[in-house]
Amino acid sequence: MKLVNFEIDNGSKPVTIKTVHSHTSKVKVTTHYTIQANGDVEVSMALDADKSLPSLLRVGMTTGIDANFADMSFYGRGPFENYSDRNQGADLGLYSGTVDSFAYQYVRPQESANRTDIDWLSLSNPQGVAFKVDGKQALSMSVWPWTAENVDSSAHTYDLIENNFNTVNIDLIQAGIGGIDSWSPKAAPIDKYKVPAGNYQYSFTLSVK
């Protein structure tokens, strides 16, 4: 992605920032950040992906937070990991634990630990400071002690490297897992759980209390 436009308006309150990223002429991402006087950051992201592109795996954003914020609570589907086509057995509720207790390591590192229909998610440190993500609509979220690049490049669990920060994935939507079989086109999710290229928009608020 290439940054093609950056605007900031700090002449009035709240402060607003707008960024536009693109990839060739096929993908455009416009992001607005509104910084309130109390420190809350309202984030709104719009994706325009040309419909000629293949189906997407996910639509969302990622950030990092100090690894000391290791106590995790959320309201959504749980307690076990779940995806759009694997969540009917996951009840909506309030769940709490550590980041490690909600993570899951497959024999071969891969996408994991997602929860769907997240209303809000909070990460707290030992001093009681909490970082909260509050969706304006239902979110799919996961928190890892590794980076996505590390997960993608690892063939074994011992290749995973924990950092001094946790990766927080804040997604509007992810494609389903699929897996009717593992050797034919049926391995892909059925159409209902695919994410076709097109226009998507979502919003959430970041706060620290």
Automatic annotation (TrEMBL):
Its EC number is 3.2.1.23. The keyword Hydrolase applies. It comes from the Bacteria. It holds the Pfam family Bgal_small_N. Keywords: Glycosidase, Hydrolase. InterPro entries: B-gal_small/dom_5, Bact_Beta-galactosidase, Gal_mutarotase_sf_dom, GH-type_carb-bd. Residues 2-207 form the Beta galactosidase small chain/ domain. The keyword Hydrolase applies. Gene3D superfamilies: 2.70.98.10. It catalyses: Hydrolysis of terminal non-reducing beta-D-galactose residues in beta-D-galactosides. This is beta-galactosidase. It comes from Paraglaciecola aquimarina.
